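Dear colleagues,

As part of the handover before I leave the project, I'm documenting each prediction I ran so the next person doesn't have to rerun anything. This entry is a single chain, and its sequence is reproduced below.
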Amino acid sequence: RSSDLATGNWGCGAFGGDCRLKALLQILAAAEAGRDVVYFTFGDHKLMTDICDLHTVLTENEMTVGQVFKLLLQYYDAYITTCPAHGRPHVPLYTFLLDEISDSADKI
């Protein structure tokens, strides 16, 4: 068995990256590589809870990396391309993902 991948909020400090997006991308990459992730949120309890909640939903719904990536592209098209420069989208990423996954599960 491969070692767990220890990581954290890469690119989210001085560079202003979205911690939730960065966490999700690292989790997807680790999943594709067959590795577990130990994600350090550096004391951000809300971020820790959000990541855990999303991971639980992704796992319970048996979402593949490809399915999640398609949702990321949908989010980009719907909210990022219409967002003012340097602004934040009016719908948070994890809210969008959780709603989309819930809607998909309801249709089954």
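The first strand starts at residue 5 and ends at 8. The first helix runs from residue 19 to 32.

All the best with the project,
I.
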